[in-house]
Design a protein that fits this description.
single chain; alpha/beta; Chemotaxis Receptor Methyltransferase Cher, domain 1; Rossmann fold; seven-stranded mixed sheet; about 40% helix
């Protein structure tokens, strides 16, 4: 299968929109076609039509999640888009340390709303530990959610190629990672004290959310590029309602809330506050 028929891509786009709010434009057709071809070579389905018929009429939740995995792209790294972490240090943790900012008691809740394979929520946990004065006196938890099964499984294992931490300060790596040995000598694992700060759960952002917040920080980065304008607007307004007053929302550097009907205040490119 080299290309998808227009009607086939339209059906795939319809399934993605109805189930996950994804806006698959024609620019994604080649990418979807290539991934689908690779999937079908190892599947029991004869062709695209047979697979689409299965998705429409016979698929269970596991089948649909496998299809979402096929469509999703999990690109991530530790402390990706460092300007967001710089903002947290400057405008959140430093004022907390100086007593110029308060939270609910000494409780801080952070949500990584599209955690992918885990580097983002683990980075948020490490960042909090590094920058909170008297960290042991704080109650810090990071909620990490995603829909992709394969990504969540990797996040739970928390093991990554050593090259992913080569740009981090050596002191931080020694403090927060364990180096593999033997066959795993080229891997690192996030240390237990960081993993314990992070709760990993599956979540479809388009459905109901089984938590009420409030959160002091929400990272929802490089997700809204897949959504149309009405979907983006609904999503960010739901997140607004979950943030504490003064709470921080970070989105991807290629994303913006410009043109959306929302109460968020812009504080720097791709960073907003309630």
């Amino acid at each position: 299968m080299s290309t998808l028929a227009p009607s086939q891509f339209e059906k795939i786009a319809e399934i993605a929109r109805d189930n996950w709010g994804l806006d698959l434009t024609e620019r994604k057709e080649k990418l979807v076609s290539n991934r689908l071809a690779k999937f079908l070579r190892k599947s029991p389905f004869e062709d695209v039509e047979a697979y689409l018929n299965h998705l429409e009429h016979e698929a269970d939740d596991a089948d649909m999640l496998a299809f979402f995995d096929l469509l999703s792209t999990n690109v991530t790294s530790f402390f990706r888009e460092s300007q967001h972490f710089d903002y947290l240090e400057r405008e959140f943790y430093t004022p907390l340390a100086r007593g110029n900012l308060t939270t609910r008691g000494r409780k801080i809740r952070i949500w990584s709303a599209a955690c992918s394979t885990g580097p983002e929520p683990y980075s948020l946990a490490m960042h909090a530990m590094e920058h909170l004065t008297n960290y042991e006196k704080w109650d810090v938890k990071v909620l990490a959610t995603d829909l992709a099964t394969s990504a969540l499984n990797e996040a739970k294992v928390a093991m990554y190629p050593v090259k992913m931490v080569e740009e981090l300060p050596e002191k931080m790596v020694k403090k927060h990672f364990l180096r593999g040995t033997g066959e795993q000598k080229d891997m690192v694992k996030v240390a237990a004290h960081i993993r314990e700060m992070v709760t990993i759960r599956r979540l479809n952002l388009m459905e109901s959310w089984p938590f009420k917040g409030p959160f002091e920080v929400i990272f929802c980065r490089n997700v809204m590029i897949y959504f149309d304008k009405p979907t983006r607007e609904r999503l960010v307004n739901r997140m607004y309602d979950l943030l504490s007053p003064g709470g921080i929302l970070a989105i991807g550097s290629a994303e913006t809330l410009s043109g959306l009907d929302t109460k968020f205040q812009t504080v720097q490119p791709s960073v907003y506050v309630r």
